[in-house]
C-alpha cells in the first residue's frame, strides 16, 4: 500500500450537512452548513463556521442566534439549494415550500420539515481565515414526535438523515455497530 501526500486541506469526511435558519428584524433565511459539530456536552455547545461574505453571517452576528436543522433524504434538494442560492436574492422558505416554526428559546425559526432543530445562542465568533467559527450554547433541542417509539426512544434513522462527503450528499444505510459493541459480552445461545 502506498500513501499519496496532498497539500493541506479539509478531508475530515463525512460531515453533517445541516440547514441553519436565522433572521433579522423582518426576514428569515436559511444557509447550508457542513462545518458544524459538537464542542462540549456539559454545557451543551456546538459551532458553525461561515464565510464572512455570506448573507447569513451578518444576520447571525447581529442577533447572536441561529437554529441548526438536521437534514434528510427528503430535504436533500433544499439542502443543496440553500447552499448555492443567497438569501439576498431569494426567500428560501417560500421558494422551497418550507415551513418556519416559532422556536422556544430564540427568535430564529425552526424548519418544521426537519426531524431535529437545535436552538443556539452565540457565545463567541472566532476569525480563522476563510471562515469564522460561531461557538454557541445549545438552548433547546426540538424533535419530531413521529420518530418516537412507545418507550419514548427517538429514532433519527427513520427520518433518513444525510451527510456530505467531498462534494456529494449521501444517505446513511445501515448501522455497523452500536456504542460499546466492541467490548460487549457475547450473548449465549440457548
Structure characterization notes:
Strands 3-2-6-9-10-5-4 form a seven-stranded antiparallel sheet. The protein has a three-stranded antiparallel sheet with strand order 1-11-12, with no helix packed on it. Strand 11 and strand 12 form a beta hairpin. It contains three helices and twelve strands; from the N terminus they run βββββαβααββββββ. The protein is mostly beta strands and 190 residues long. The mean pLDDT is 94. The protein is globular and about 65 Å long.
Summarize the structure.
The protein is 12% helix and 36% strand. The protein has three helices and twelve strands; from the N terminus they run βββββαβααββββββ. The strands form three sheets. The chain has a seven-stranded antiparallel sheet with strand order 3-2-6-9-10-5-4. Strands 1-11-12 form a three-stranded antiparallel sheet, with no helix packed on it. It has a two-stranded antiparallel sheet with strand order 7-8.
